[in-house]
Design goal:
The complex is a heterodimer of chains A (110) and B (122).
Chain A lengths: L3 E3 L2 E4 L4 E8 L11 E5 L6 E5 L3 E2 L7 E6 L2 E7 L8 E9 L2 E4 L3 E5 L1
Parallel strand pairs in A: 2-11
Antiparallel strand pairs in A: 1-3, 3-8, 4-5, 4-9, 5-6, 7-8, 9-10, 9-11
Chain B lengths: L2 E5 L2 E2 L6 E8 L8 E6 L5 E7 L6 E3 L7 E6 L4 E6 L8 E12 L2 E7 L3 E4 L3
Parallel strand pairs in B: 2-11
Antiparallel strand pairs in B: 1-3, 3-8, 4-5, 4-9, 5-6, 7-8, 9-10, 9-11
The chains are: A mainly beta (110), B mainly beta (122).
Chain lengths: 110, 122
């Protein structure tokens, strides 16, 4: 069974840049997996940030960007702000309607 | 304004059944694929089931296949999840999500409701 991997936690200083990654337990992530990124703050529903690797969802600031870095999908936050402190989830498309989420990354801004 | 409002959650004993509902508004429901996603307490997200706009396509995760059934009523703008033979590991917040077409035949959860809690004592 394919597992989608994410860093469990990460920290960034206010104003700094951080890159979160999304990989596979076996193989490389490519655009064919349509990597999608969500942000979730405690007690709230997830919010779509990025879809199809690098397309920002409506209303998402341009300091959030998506890409493929090496064999992983990546979410980069440039100029981190205090309210970016959230859980970030990636999800990859495995075909036949099956999306598999990573375990999420808890981002701390301090 | 897109709105998704889940209902029908609660406490149910192992082996019991529950039907979740999601009332949708603010978009053309009948042409939009919909998905149920769940999140166990303190855990990550899991896609449970998806149904296409016209119900010609459904997907159910292996973890719920044969126990859960997704369906919709386009005349009422309602999405459902019938959950049978519930287990402790089904305890989670269940989110109704409106899907977004990202490629031919591929739909991704885009806008999410606030979720409803289902508790199955283990």
């Amino acid at each position: 069974q394919t597992v989608v991997t994410q860093e469990p936690s990460f920290s960034v200083s206010p104003g700094g840049t951080v890159t979160l990654t999304c990989g596979l337990s076996s193989g490389s992530v490519s655009t064919s997996y349509y990597p999608t990124w969500y942000q979730q703050t405690p007690g709230q529903a997830p919010r779509t940030l990025i879809y199809t690797t690098n397309t920002r969802s409506s209303g998402v600031p341009d300091r959030f960007s998506g890409s493929i870095l090496g064999n992983k999908a990546a979410l980069t936050i440039t100029g981190a702000q205090a309210d970016d402190e959230s859980d970030y989830y990636c999800v990859l498309y495995m075909g036949s309607g099956n999306w598999v989420f990573g375990g999420g990354t808890k981002l701390t801004v301090l | 304004e897109v709105q998704l409002l889940e209902s029908g959650g609660g406490l149910v004993q192992p082996g019991g059944s529950l039907r979740l509902s999601c009332a949708a508004s603010g978009f053309t429901f009948s042409s939009t694929a919909m998905t149920w996603v769940r999140q166990a307490p303190g855990k990550g997200l899991e896609c449970v089931a998806t149904v296409s706009g016209g119900s010609s396509f459904t997907f159910h995760a292996d973890s719920v296949k044969g126990r859960f059934t997704i369906s919709r009523d386009n005349s009422r703008n309602m999405l459902y999840l019938q959950m049978n033979n519930l287990r402790g590991e089904d305890t989670a917040i269940y989110y109704c999500a409106k899907d977004f077409r990202i490629a031919a035949g591929i739909y991704s959860p885009d806008f999410w409701g606030q979720g409803i809690l289902v508790t199955v004592p283990s």
